[in-house]
TrEMBL record:
Gene3D superfamilies: L-arginine/glycine Amidinotransferase, Chain A (3.75.10.10). Keywords: Hydrolase. It comes from the Bacteria. It comes from Kushneria pakistanensis. This is Agmatine deiminase. InterPro entries: Peptidyl-Arg-deiminase_porph.
Amino acid sequence: MLSWPGRDSDWASLLDAIETTFITLIEVIARYQHVLVTLPDESTRQRLAMTLSHLGVPDNRLSLVIAPSDDTWARDHGPLTVIEHGTARLLDYRFTGWGGKFSAERDNALNGVLADQGIFTPELESMQQIVLEGGGVETDGQGTLLTTRSCLLNPNRNPHLDQAAIEAHLRDHLGIQRVLWLENGYLEGDDTDSHIDTLARFCDEQTIAYVRCDDPTDPHFEALSAMERELKAFRRCDGQPYRLIALPWPGPCFDPEDGHRLPATYANFLIINDAVLMPSYADRADYAAMQALSEAFPGRDIIPIDCRQVIRQHGSLHCLTMQLPTGTLKAIENRYAEK
């Protein structure tokens, strides 16, 4: 699932460039699986359908649906899926623009708009009493969740819930049996209060890929070194240490307009069917990141996606997307593509 950038969003000045990135992303994902794109209006839907048709993207790999959003970060406003006894459940958590930093009314309503249009197979379950973003939680699919205290316990999210209450909710509704809390780790330019998907990710039940800063002069060095020590101390359910794969540190990436540092990270990769899409930044570390991810995901294609425009709005590849596992999306005909 992707949410198309609107002309009234923060992407306005970068719209042509970011649309090119979105089209590339859709075309690549559609080689492997179905893509749901939410769009602001009918004219945008018709234009995108024609473009993708000319690129040879099959109609049966696309669902183009009108559902306006405030922004493009589907990872944080999309539904979270839980597989329970082989059946998918879709949970609709409240999204507040990362603790009220940005407008998010349309983002928060988007899942309901999709449900009303019959896009989802399961009934959408409201979790609007809890603020939770998909980028803030990372699971191994077997009951272990990895997150950061600075995000999940931030008073700008759920000030009425302490750590015990958060863990109880994750246990009762997401099937989480244990939570690994990171005390350290951040990226300059990040708006999310240190979402875990920019820092450390499960590759399988035994493996975590994480950001390592190897430049002692960089302002991130101490915090990310402390995060690395925490990851080394974590243990799997069987008591063994995790297999850790360090992702390289890209050179500093700065906004070309005002010069502030942008949160470039290779941890924001996207796992799809038979492939992993990796954010690239035209940096000399890109190739090393591809090698590291090849080690983490043997047998999968590793495909770089240029995210230099995406990062200008302080997110990257994983942030733009939300997976919808088998059993969640109805096989609806794409009536809107050019025939």
